[in-house]
Amino acid sequence: MRDPNSIALPGVIPVKIDVSDPASVSAAEAHCGDVTLLINNAGIARVNAGALDPALIDSAREIFETNFYGVIRVSQSFAPVLSANGGGAIINVLSDATWFARPMLTAYSAAKSAAWGFTNALRIELRESGTQVLALHVGFMATDLTKGLEIEKSDPRQVAAHALEALEDGREEVLADEQSNVVKRSLSTEQAYDLKPPAMA
Ligand SMILES: NC(=O)c1ccc[n+]([C@@H]2O[C@H](COP(=O)([O-])OP(=O)(O)OC[C@H]3O[C@@H](n4cnc5c(N)ncnc54)[C@H](OP(=O)(O)O)[C@@H]3O)[C@@H](O)[C@H]2O)c1
Predict the structure, then answer these.
(1) I need a labelling partner for 196 at 20 to 30 A (CA). Which of 83, 86, 88, 155 fits?
(2) Structurally, how many domains does the chain consist of?
(3) Does the annotation mark 112 as catalytic?
């Protein structure tokens, strides 16, 4: 969140952070020495004409800066803080797009797949310091990002509740809605979702 003034919740101390800016991430880390739970939620999406869109490379660079390099940057910065505070946990907010690329979201999907790979490596590495790393996958949610999209969306409050429940259960991956379950379950079948998506997907 880049504008702390946009948050007015009792008991919450907003801290400015731009995950695409190393100096901003370091400054946030310096302010937050008591962190025990890091949620890499910051994310952007850009719609392209498809995989052959000449603008795709520029979009991909922009998206990767936040959705992939941002996750790496913030995780690397806060991992020592979590470790110093007893281990704690990281939740990386991913997507059903981790395993299924809609052409108009080619770059977004690629960035989520990349972030999933990073999450899996991070999990193994941070076991040593007792930091639990949870990947949260979810299909469309009703947030600002999807405003105006006429499609079924889940309630982000329920998604957050599922994620926290999974964290408390010591899990490492949570599929927070039916869509992400359907996509992941299909991967080992001949009709895998990424190979033969339903017409409306
Ligand atoms: N909505 C969906 O259908 C859906 C589905 C699956 C996964 N996700 C994932 O869920 C996460 C949250 O998305 P959302 O749906 O809540 O989107 P959103 O309503 O657009 O919110 C995105 C949030 O990310 C922050 N952000 C973006 N770039 C940032 C940066 N460089 N540094 C710091 N903060 C930054 C934004 O803060 P600013 O106020 O600074 O812009 C905003 O708070 C994302 O990772 C997204 O990919 C969303």
Answers:
(1) 155
(2) 1
(3) yes
